[in-house]
Amino acid sequence: MIKLKLSTPPWRSEWELWVHFVIRRRQLGMLAAAGLMGSSSMHSQGTDLQKVRVGVAMRNSMNNLPLVLADQLGYFRQAGIMVDWHDFEVGSFANQALLNGQVDVISGHFEQVLDSNDRGHKLQAFVVQGRTPQISLGIAMRHLASYQTMTDLKRFKIGISAYQTATHAMANVWSLQAGLNPLEMQYVEVGSMMTAMDALRNGAVDGLCHMDPLMSWLEFKRDLRVVADTRSVQSSNLWLGGALAATCLYAKADYLNQKSAQMQGMTDGVVRALRWLLTAGPTDILRAVPSNAWIGDRAFYLGTFDKVRDSYSPDGLFTDELLQTAWRSRALRLGLPRINAVDRTALLAAYTNLAVKKIKKRQNS
Length: 365
Fold this sequence. Notes:
This protein is an alpha/beta fold. The protein has 2 domains: 2-9 and 135-240, Periplasmic binding protein-like II (D-Maltodextrin-Binding Protein, domain 2, 3-Layer(aba) Sandwich), CATH 3.40.190.10; 12-132 and 245-364, D-Maltodextrin-Binding Protein, domain 2 (3-Layer(aba) Sandwich), CATH 3.40.190.10. The chain is built from 17 helices and 11 strands. The chain has a 6-stranded mixed beta sheet with strand order 1-8-7-9-6-10, with helices on both faces. A 5-stranded mixed beta sheet has the order 3-2-4-11-5, sandwiched between helices. Strand 7, helix 7 and strand 8 (186-189) form a beta-alpha-beta unit. Helix 3 packs across helix 12, helix 7 (166-177) packs across helix 15 (320-334) and helix 12 (260-279) packs across helix 17 (354-364). The termini are far apart.
């Protein structure tokens, strides 16, 4: 296992706005909440808000956009929820915090639920945010001449956020599809988006398997060329055989059983944000997303959003297609002999549509 210790990058000015966003996010959230007090529903004004400790890795990545919007647009408060944000560098750290009881709910990939349950834990996902991983694989421009096909990946050091994360999982899938052994790949843990950029630019890695907006930013700056991606439903069909349950909210099953109001409130907020995204125009996006997240270039941010727009779930529901594709992707990654042989018991234990269906029933009544 290769680990990388990264220093402060000399090009930090390019990401000054982004850094400011991360540092000031909690203060901005408090100000936004104060501004929403006058316009939020009677429910949030007349009762105490239920605090939910939410763990998230790389909160400003595009796959967490529905969750962030639900907070920014006041949907959580209107559902009686106050989010207590807990930020982590990578998803595996957030998942461990959930298992340790340090957070209540995680925004992460559905395969992490399956992996954790396979190790004896009892986690359950309850609302889908994304139906593609939104992960891309890119080769540094300085090495592009040496790259012809995916089999060339074995000669390159590929940066992933960390082992046992979604980026690691997707890198393994691409390696297997190229006929390579993931155990023989030169993976380097590069952490969050900022340190990943540093690793690529200083030559510590030859390519990256990571998320947007980082990968789009590096394309924009001509630091790398993306050779495979799962940003859209079309690209997910190409590489994974269909749309799948990707980013979702999940928690310990016991927590969801005991805190049904919190589960419902979180689901209400995210589903409202997903529906908002279906019709939101460029001006709507720029008004709702804090300007600090634009990386100083709103045209770039809107272009990145367009790449991933259809990857968001329209309604938060776990469908058979999303679940079965996620199962096949994981089975391929783990080298299971029969990737289409779904363990129904394990799959049913890993998710619930209860809260989403309550929203649909409420709308139809």
